[in-house]
Amino acid sequence: MFSTMAQRLQELMVLFFLAIFSKAVAGLKPYTRANLMPDAANNNYCLSWRLAVEANNVRGWRTVPAQCLRYIEAYMIGGQYDRDLEFITQQIWSYVSGIVPSSDGWMPGFLTLMTLASPMSFTIRERDMGTCDPYDPAGFKAWALMGGCPAIPAVLRLFLDLVEGGFKVFLVTGRDQESLGQATADNLHNQGFIGYERLILRTASYKGQSAVKYKSDIRKQLVEEGYRIWGNVGDQWSDLQGEFLGNRTFKLPNPMYFVP
Amino acid sequence: MFSTMAQRLQELMVLFFLAIFSKAVAGLKPYTRANLMPDAANNNYCLSWRLAVEANNVRGWRTVPAQCLRYIEAYMIGGQYDRDLEFITQQIWSYVSGIVPSSDGWMPGFLTLMTLASPMSFTIRERDMGTCDPYDPAGFKAWALMGGCPAIPAVLRLFLDLVEGGFKVFLVTGRDQESLGQATADNLHNQGFIGYERLILRTASYKGQSAVKYKSDIRKQLVEEGYRIWGNVGDQWSDLQGEFLGNRTFKLPNPMYFVP
């Protein structure tokens, strides 16, 4: 029931998001549900584009290419996006399951349910928990304020498994702390993200800094506090580049927007 | 004519390569041309796997998953691999075309045909120029010794464009200099890779080092010689990680083998 509703919401979000884009593209037919059928002639090109985005070969793109709007919509709500997420969260869990406890003096106070002697942290960006937080548009800020972003089921499951597995999970987001802090915390709670160690939003001192710099600084602080970052998960390459990246990084798919 | 022959050779290589793998997989039907039709039921999973490989989410894999052998074969010779390569080499060329000449004292002797005042280098791994150099198998070493690896047309075109554009192109490969140096140079020449600045193979002093360490050292040396590395192209993430990576990295697709 919850899962069906979440999926409906997700579909609506994709449509809403792509509708905004299509408005910006001159000469394109109105973006209605009726003409959303994937155009087979474009599929090969758009598959190349999507691959290039995920491999970080295409950077700084501001919108989905006009000819790929329908393809990306079909990808997002047609099942393959969910399968890609499922595949990657399984990879993450397989990696996590192979972590061997050690006792090398890292924050010995953080013994976990997995009886690891060293503390662990696992950063997941808050952005990855819903599909309704694209880069910048004011309309989405208003939406975020409502605290109604639906969770991505596969990411929620991974999160809960990590918490249950004894990982200290840090949620690091570029959202503004002052204006969106409370709404974000509420949203996480109403979606079931319960048990994380800390939610870290962008404070005034980081305003205007690039995502790579801001997030590197946050990770540095965590390491200096004594955390070992076992994994670093994000849907943007700017989450996974810079310094103090952690032992492994994982890129979740996101062909909808690019955060520099 | 040349291009058709090269394509035939490439197809044969894919078959040969996948055949070796299929032998290693117990219970699999003999890998013959007759049963190479992609299995539709596997396609979605294998597409997720291929995406995860290119995004560096799956690491250290030794073989293509058994259920994806047919899918990968179809990908490699059915057109999408060529389209992906074409897409990325266009991205590279678009990036290269945007490079603005500067005169900041980097090796002023290296004025180029593009009248850039600073020297430029563009590393391309030799491995990316053919599909016949998988990781380690002795049979392929013998093949490499024959100097018959066919060029990938899109990469050859990019190479020639870069040379003509005035870039100093360095070819950096993990191949052993002593045993494969001459054959590799001959192979490059007979495939039309003419005009590169330097071909760099693995000397005895780098034996046993990881690809990331060895290639970082090589790039460091180039930078110390005064080269600015504008671009770094490879089909393995181990080409694109480590130090002195250059201003931009580009990952060429390769779902056939993984070099740690």
From TrEMBL, chains A, B:
InterPro entries: Acid_phosphat_B-like, APS1/VSP, HAD-like_sf, HAD_sf. It comes from the Eukaryota. SUPFAM superfamilies: HAD-like (SSF56784). It comes from Hevea brasiliensis. One of its GO terms (molecular function) is nutrient reservoir activity. Coiled coil: none annotated. Keywords: Glycoprotein, Signal, Storage protein. This is Acid phosphatase. Pfam families: Acid_phosphat_B. The keyword Magnesium does not apply. Residues 1-27 form the signal peptide. May function as somatic storage protein during early seedling development. Belongs to the APS1/VSP family.
